[in-house]
Structure formats: C-alpha cells, structure tokens
Amino acid sequence: MPVPSAALDVADRDARARARAAGVEIRKLTPDEAPDACSLLADVWDSDPRHGPMEASLLIALLHCDNYVSGAFDHGRMVGVCVGFFAAPIGTGMHSHIAGVIRQYAGRGVGTALKLHQRAWALHRGVTSISWTYDPLVARNAFFNLHLLGARVTQYVPDFYGEMSDGINDGQATDRLVVHWAIVSSTLNTAASVPLDAREFVVLEMDQAREPVLASGPPPDGFTRCRVAIPDDIALFRTRDRGVAARWRLAAREALVALLADRWVVTDFDRSGYYRLERN
C-alpha cells in the first residue's frame, strides 16, 4: 500500500541520524558478503561457524528475492547484520528474523540504527508492520522492543523453535514473545516509564534468593494493571545456575500465557525488570 511521502522522509532522516550517531554505514549486503554475515551471526550466537543461525546459501536466496539483508559497517568492517523477509499480511507485512551486533560494538546504538534502517527500507516497499520474536527473559531486548520501539506483544509461544544447540539457547526451552511494530508513524520513546505503584498487582516477583515467586492466583477483580518480573541478566543466571534459569522460564511462561489468554495487554517494560500490563 502507498505510504505517505512525509512518513518516508521522516523514516529516512531518522535512519541516517541513528547510523551517524552509531558511527556506522548501513547498506544492503552483496552475495559475496553472505559468508561473512553468517560468521558474524555465528559469533554473536556463540555457535560453531559451520552450524550458525544462518546459512550463506539462504542469505543469498533472500537477497535474490529482494528481502531485507543488510549490514552495519565501521570503515569497511562488518559489525552488525539484520535479516528479514516479507510476510503476512501479504503486501504490508515483514518478519524480522535475526539481528546481531558484535560484542565490541554493544551499547553503541548499532542495533537501533539497523532497526531504523530496516523500517525505512520496509516503508519504501509498502510495508506498514514488522513482526519478530524475542526471548521474554532477556530484559535488555524487552526494553528495546517494547519501550524504545513501542512494538506490541501479540502472542507468547512456548518452545517456539524447539531444541537449539547454540551457546545462547542450548539446553533450554526456546519460548518467544511475538511482537508487531507499526512503522508508519512510530517514534523512539526515550521517556522514562510511569513509576511503579501499589495499584499494580504483582503476578511474578523475585525473592531475596533471586528465585521466582508466583502469586497464588490471577489479579483479583478491581485491578486494572499488573506487572511480571524477570531477571535483569538471565544470561548470568544460565551461566551460574541453569536450574534457577529454568524455573524463571516456567514461571514467566505460566504468568504471561495466562494473562494474555485473559485479555491482559502488555503496555511497557520497565528498566527495573517488569513487564507492565493492563486489562483490555
């Protein structure tokens, strides 16, 4: 569908500004660069380079069909990759499958720059909504997706990918939240979240031993807001005590699946480690 020219201008401007602020150039990859992109993603996912999360042949096929396969470069060095493909609804939808930035560039805004480049690229092709999945226990991704970008949670899928053997997902269920990002009028939200208060029912909390503690039941009638805690660094939990990490997986799954089924809507993620929800 046609996208207003004003929206295209804003998206292009924002993408250029974010890339400039991150100190990178973002552009479409060439087929010859596909192996390097796969090696970068394998390193980010702590995988055997021969069995990383993407294959060069698949990237080349996606490029050939004019899907989104782009890289971020610092003076010619590839430091980030983002891959997406057209999806339902046909003509206006895109699914962003994977994005990664090398560790040395974490925290420099390269991921945000890639996402805004993807938004501008998609808008120029009539796409108005981009979907993707992420691990609901990874707090930094929850904040980026829900607070900064303003993406909307539409589904919780237990064990979305099944068993995976990379260094991030090995030995645990691959639960994912599905989010959709309406990109025509989206803006980055740099404001702080609304402060937590006692009128929010606490469905899942962390105790002093950093274990998950579920409420004995759903939010009672009369509560219109609630919150669900997750660890501030689940990767550290997985390294130190996989049992605790697994218990957090099951507790967050139980809480969020039940709330979404009961028509609660995720409205934000607070930096203090809480999903914020309101009754629909």
From TrEMBL:
Top-level taxon in the UniProt lineage: Bacteria
Ranges of residues in domain N-acetyltransferase: 24-169
GO molecular function, one term: acyltransferase activity, transferring groups other than amino-acyl groups
PANTHER family: GCN5-RELATED N-ACETYLTRANSFERASE (PTHR41700), N-ACETYLTRANSFERASE DOMAIN-CONTAINING PROTEIN (PTHR41700:SF1)
Name of the protein this chain belongs to: N-acetyltransferase domain-containing protein
Record organism: Leekyejoonella antrihumi
